[in-house]
Every structure is written in structure tokens, then in C-alpha cells.
Amino acid sequence: METQQKFKILFLCTANSARSLMAEAIFRQFADDSFEVTSAGTEPTQPEPEALKALSAIGVTTDGLRSKSLTEIDLPAYDYIISLCDRARTECQLLCSDDQFIAWDFPDPVTSKKTDAFRKTAHELSERIKMLLLILRKRSDRPQLFDAPNEFFKILSDPLRLQMILMLHKHGELCVCQFVDATGKSQPKVSQPKVSRHLAQLREYGLLSDRKDQRWVYYRINPALPDWMAAVIATTAEYHPQQTSQPIKDINNGCV
Q1: How many domains does the chain have?
Q2: pLDDT (tens digit, 9 = 90+) per residue, 75-88?
Q3: Residue 165 lies in domain
């Protein structure tokens, strides 16, 4: 019987002592046997005791975790390489292909003065990694998680899709009927099938995630997006507030 090829994930940061090491442990805890994950640093030191403590506090095993050098890693062998600090992104992005590299810029809990910095980092990494795994599992037949920049701008070039993304940036979560109502304020109302079709395209690309709550399906911007994509969306929303000025209907008051 042919062995199924595993998705190989690499998390990077400078010291490989906290953020990337925590991401490795959390990903391994949540993933199944179809994934292989490790972490490394450009200047590795040793695991931070507070990082290990934060992982244990959320039930993530820390057995076998060690800081590793990037020189131990065969970068082309990995499907996705995720940097967790700006320095690692700067030093390593040019060594990777565009469809292989994802940048998440997490604040360093080691240098933070906040007492809950490691706990917060562990929680935020867990949320992003859960979403990343959800999308990877849905798109197991497709080698790329996020397409090249030209595809990102292509999918946002449609005025309706762009407006819906900006609305989600402002409001956090919305359901289909809220989009239908809001997009009809300054133009002929868009039909629900058309809105649903565009939402499905955004979700398929990986820009959106969804959740079902009783009779409603809510959409939000995927928190696992590369940071540069999130920054483009945020900047566009800041400079074009008219795109999101429409009032949003309360779904408890007549949204069907």
C-alpha cells in the first residue's frame, strides 16, 4: 500500500525558544498523522521555561521540545514555512518560494513586560493554528494554502467581494442576510445567491472562515492569513471608510 505523503510545516523565529517552539508543540497537539511539524531559529538558544509552563497550562505536551538551528533544516522539503517574527521573515523569506512562505508577526513574550505574555501567546497561537489546520484539511487536494500575490489582488478586484471583506474587517462577523441588506443601501440590492457565491469564493481561497450558530452561518476574516494580506485589508479599510458606512441589520430583528 502506498504511504500517504505528509504535509510538512516549519515554524521559524530568531531564538526558537518561545514563539516557534510553542507553535510546534501546539500544532503537533492538534494535528493528525497526515502532518509533520518542526521549528527552528536563525540564532537558536534554549527553550524558555515560561513558554513550557504556558503550554502545560493549556494541556499541550512539551516532551522532546528543543531549540534547533535553521542549518539543520532542508527548507525546500517543507510545504509551508511560517515565520513568527519580523527578523526571521527578513532573513528567510528570500530562501523560500512565494507559495511556501507565510508571515505571522507575533510579539515576543520574552521581552514583554506583561505578566500574562506567554499565556496570551499560547492562546493566540492556538487560535491561528486551529484555523490553519481547518483550511489545510479542507484543501488537502491543493498544494497551496494561499496563492501568489497576483491571485490575492485578483480575488479582491471584484467590487462586491472587496466590500464584503472590508465590512468584515470593521464588524468582525456577519451572516449572509446582513451582507444582502447592507450592500443594497446605496445600489440595487444584491441577491442572496450572488452574495453566497462570492462568500464561497472568498472562503475557498482561504480569506474567510465560517461558523454555524443555530440557524445562522457567520463569516469572518481568516485569522491565519499571512500578515501582509491582513495589512493590505486593514489599510484599504482605513483609507476607504465609505465602503463600510452602511448600517448592519440586527439578525434578531427581521433578518431572514
Answers
A1: 2
A2: 889 989 999 988 88
A3: 149-244
**252 inside domain:** no
SS3 173: coil
| 98 vs 119: CA distance, rounded Å | 31
Sheet-wide strand order for 35-41:
35-41, 7-13, 80-83, 101-103
Q: What is the rounded distance in angstroms from the CA atom of residue 150 to the CA atom of residue 63?
A: 41
> 96 is written with which cell numbers?
523560500
List, for residues 138-180, the tens digit of each pLDDT value: 665 544 566 668 888 988 999 989 999 999 999 989 988 888 8
SS3 52: helix
Q: 62-81: b or e for each residue (b if 16 or more CB lie within 10 Å)?
A: eeebebbebeebebeebbbb
Residue where a domain stops, chosen among 105, 138, 171: 138
Provide the grid cell at 54.
504556558
Half-sphere exposure of 35 (CA within 13 A, CB side): 21
Cα–Cα dist 171/241, whole Å: 12
Cell of 91: 532573513
CB neighbours (10 Å) of residue 15? 22
End residue of a domain, out of 138, 172, 189: 138
Residue 196 in domain = yes
Give me the residue label for grid cell 501546539: 26
β-pair type (216-221, 174-175): antiparallel
